[in-house]
Design goal:
The chain has one domain. It is 66% helix and 0% strand. Helix 3 packs antiparallel against helix 4.
Length: 146
């Protein structure tokens, strides 16, 4: 059992930033992606993946996911598309996921932190094709399985 909590090592600025984003997002009404025009179609799957990736990189992936889950009564193609966008697309920018922010914090502590340009140059060749391949796979599943 651990009796000591290293409070000085808790990333308070990262936690405060994510909490602030989540608080602001709590003021926004839930997004019913399942009721968007074309939702659930093959093209709608692609559009929803892109929208989810944009949301993850604007407000972080967890608040971006919660933004939709409250509005959807069941998990269908639109929700799967949004989930894919907020999880895979979150790697595109440093603010897309809490893991990215914590990783950058560790790198900064070691004196190795890449800037935004360098981060994007490193992640885009990996995360971009992964997001595209996953979106095409999901759209293909939608086309085949309805």
């Amino acid at each position: 059992m651990t009796r000591y909590v290293p409070w000085r090592r808790v990333p308070l600025t990262v936690a405060a930033g994510v909490a602030a984003m989540a608080s602001v997002l709590a003021l926004v009404p839930a997004l019913p992606v399942g009721r968007a025009p074309g939702a659930g179609t093959v093209a709608g799957v692609g559009a929803t993946v892109v929208a989810g990736a944009v949301a993850a990189n604007a407000v972080n992936n967890l608040p971006g996911l919660l933004l939709v889950l409250d509005a959807e009564p069941r998990i269908g193609w639109p929700v799967w598309s949004w989930l894919l966008g907020v999880t895979t697309g979150a790697a595109l920018l440093p603010i897309g996921a809490l893991a990215n922010l914590l990783w950058l914090r560790i790198l900064r502590a070691e004196g190795l932190a890449p800037g935004w340009r360098r981060y994007i140059a490193l992640t885009l060749p990996v995360a971009g094709p992964a997001l595209l391949a996953a979106a095409l796979t999901l759209a293909g599943e939608r086309a085949v399985f309805g």
